[in-house]
Write a structure and sequence with these properties.
The chain has helices spanning about 1-20, 115-135; strands at about 25, 30-40, 45-50, 50, 55-60, 60-65, 75-80, 90-95, 100-105, 155, 160-165, 170, 175-180, 185, 190-200, 205-210, 215-225, 230-235, 240, 250-260, 260-265. By secondary structure, it is mostly beta strands. The protein has two domains: about 1-95, Peptidoglycan hydrolase domains (Immunoglobulin-like), CATH 2.60.40; about 100-270, Glucose Permease (Domain IIA) (Distorted Sandwich). Strands 10, 13, 14, 15, 16, 17, 18, 19, 20 and 21 form a ten-stranded antiparallel β-sheet that branches. The protein has a five-stranded mixed β-sheet with strand order 1-8-7-3-4, with no helix packed on it. The longest helix is centred in the first third of the chain and has 21 residues, at about 1-20. It is globular, with a radius of gyration of 21 Å. About 35% of the residues are buried.
Length: about 270
């Protein structure tokens, strides 16, 4: 009897290890890619932490692209997959730790480090508006999730950096900064619809481009916005000009990319240049 119990235990451990090896692996701020089967069948739907997930056809297979929050801890998470017949299953996702470097910045406008009550009230209103745009779900799905850089410039700040402003710790960097001269044309990273524009306390002049099904680009610190809400843009269309508006140490474009409402490293979806 002990022999059979031990044999069963070994089999179960082996099965668990096999499942673990098949589980998508990502890191905080990364993208977990789930293989969902042949694309000649109806597309499954996927949810992660209560939010819908982008599912696209990649070659002959359906694939889900799950944005992993930057604050996610190493360990295991799961996504809920529902096929066309309504059958559900849990898909485990392994999150591995990643050490993001720290960046120390100095800004001249002290209010951008220690906002006064009026600034905080403005920031709160603006955050609500921008969060709605970041979490939007619009039809149709994009044909591809490949993105292109909005400008060709020096990478001045990478995604995920732990940051201090004037010596004070602030939120990690949720995008990619590209240093270019003021007035440089800024292009849409992919086709989509302009879902929001504004001039914000921290982000300065900003354009949101909704690429569909939760894939969204945010372009910040512009000197000028050249599009309006509702405009349809193609990849490469000019949406504004680079600048240093909002909390900025110099002219650049801050590019954030969102999947299922969470900011992810734009490099994870960057296509061939």
């Amino acid at each position: 009897m002990k022999f059979y119990a031990a044999l069963i235990l070994v089999c179960l451990v082996g099965l668990a290890q096999a499942v673990d090896r098949q589980a998508p692996v990502s890191r905080p701020g990364g993208v977990a890619r789930l293989d969902l089967g042949p694309a000649d069948a109806p597309a499954p739907s996927v949810r992660f932490q209560g939010r819908r997930v982008l599912v696209i056809a990649t070659g002959s297979r359906w694939q889900a692209l799950v944005g992993i929050p930057l604050e996610a801890e190493p360990g295991w998470l799961s996504a809920e997959v529902t096929d066309a017949r309504g059958h559900q299953r849990e898909q485990p996702l392994e999150i591995v730790g990643h050490d993001y470097p720290t960046q120390h910045l100095r800004v001249k406008n002290r209010r951008h480090v220690d906002p006064d009550p009026a600034d905080l009230a403005r920031w709160s209103r603006e955050s609500d508006e921008q969060n709605t745009a970041k979490r939007a779900w619009r039809e149709p799905a994009p044909q591809s999730a490949a993105l292109q850089l909005p400008v060709a410039g020096r990478r001045s700040s990478a995604f995920g950096l732990r940051r201090t402003f004037n010596g004070k710790p602030r939120r990690p960097h949720s995008g990619l900064d590209l240093a270019v001269p003021t007035g440089t044309p800024v292009a849409a990273p992919a086709a989509g619809r302009v879902s929001l524009t504004g001039d914000y306390f921290f982000n300065g002049r900003t354009v949101f481009v909704d690429h569909g099904h939760g894939l969204i680009s945010m372009l910040c610190h512009l000197s000028r916005v050249d599009v309006s809400v509702g405009d349809e843009v193609a990849a490469g269309d000019i949406v504004g000009r680079a600048g240093a508006t909002g909390r900025a140490t110099g002219p650049h474009v801050h590019w954030s990319v969102f999947l299922n409402g969470t900011a992810i490293d734009p490099d994870a979806l960057l296509g061939p240049s």
